Amino acid sequence: MLTEIKEFSASTRTSADAAAAIGCSVAQIAKSLVFRAKPSGRAILVMASGANRVDEKKLAAALGETIGKADAEFVRAETGFAIGGVSPVGHGIKLKTFIDEDLMVLPEIWAAAGSPNSVFRLTPQDLLRVTEGQILALKA
Q1: What's the start-to-end Cα distance of the chain, in Å?
Q2: CA atoms of 136 and 50, how far apart (whole Å)
Q3: Which intervals hold domain YbaK/aminoacyl-tRNA synthetase-associated (predicted)?
Q4: Would you say 35 and 43 are in contact if contact means Cβ atoms under 8 Å apart?
């Protein structure tokens, strides 16, 4: 997968901001959401379509653990990135990753590239390959 990182002067922290900066649909934004599994305490990465809310009950059922929100300190400690810039790759540890099935039908998607104002383009198949994620129906 050969890709280029695009940096913007404006924030691409939210799906709507990123879509506006790129000129794509909000659905094409692969937003990175980090959850904290309970009781294990491990970080769980969800790559969701920017147009969707994640059904946390579906996520917990697939994981086999309850989940909770991850605060900014936990996200940075586990991923190496700040909230709003969490990339699907490049973490210090291997994260259990779930991919929203709605992303898989799109020809191309955009994901955070490590900062709140940078993104990169990839295909859903590239996302699946580089994250070794599990495709899941996550839409609430």
Answers
A1: 31
A2: 15
A3: 11-129
A4: yes
Report the candidate in 9, 24, 31 with the shortest Cα–Cα distance to residue 118: 9
> Whole-prediction pTM value?
0.93
pLDDT averaged over consecutive 10-residue blocks of the chain (140 residues)? Answer: 77 84 94 95 97 96 95 95 92 94 96 91 96 96
Domain count along the chain: 1
15: which 2 tokens?
Answer: 């799906």
CA atoms in the 13 A half-sphere facing the CB of 52 = 24
- Which domain, by its residues, includes 92? 5-136
- What's the CATH number where 23 sits? 3.90.960.10
